Amino acid sequence: MGIWKRGVVVGRACGRKRLKKQPVTTVLSQNHHGRSVGRKLRQLHRIIPGGGAAGEVVDTEALFQRVAVHIFLLESRVKLLQSVYDLFGPHD
Asked: From what superkingdom does this record's organism come (predicted)?
């Protein structure tokens, strides 16, 4: 999968108090949720402008940064259009 490079999951071994660290990729690949998360990240990668090729998402942090910027720009456009409508729209 390769999209969760820095995450670590901490779990408890059976009956022992010793903590065992597992990479998130191992945990995600053991169930269908990993495929689901990967699929959703690829879909998000495709719909955000500037996403590049629609292949595997390599840097999720950068993807989420682009999503945040895109949402901010969309909100700014809505505010601008509301202002234009208030200025030039029909007045009662």
From this structure: Eukaryota
Domain total in the chain: 1
* pLDDT tens readout for residues 50-70: 766 655 567 889 899 999 999
pLDDT over threshold 80, residue 76: yes
Torsion angle (degrees, nearest 10) of CA 61, 67, 69, 71: -150
Within a domain: residue 3? Answer: no
3 neighbors 60 (Cβ within 8 angstroms):
yes
Q: pTM, whole model, 2 decimals? A: 0.55
The answer as to whether 1 is a domain residue is no
Report DSSP state, residue 84. H
Range of the domain at 47: 8-88
φ/ψ bin of 15: left (φ > 0), alpha (ψ from -120 to 50), beta (otherwise): left
**Residue 2 within any structural domain of the chain:** no
Secondary structure class of 80 (helix, strand, coil): helix
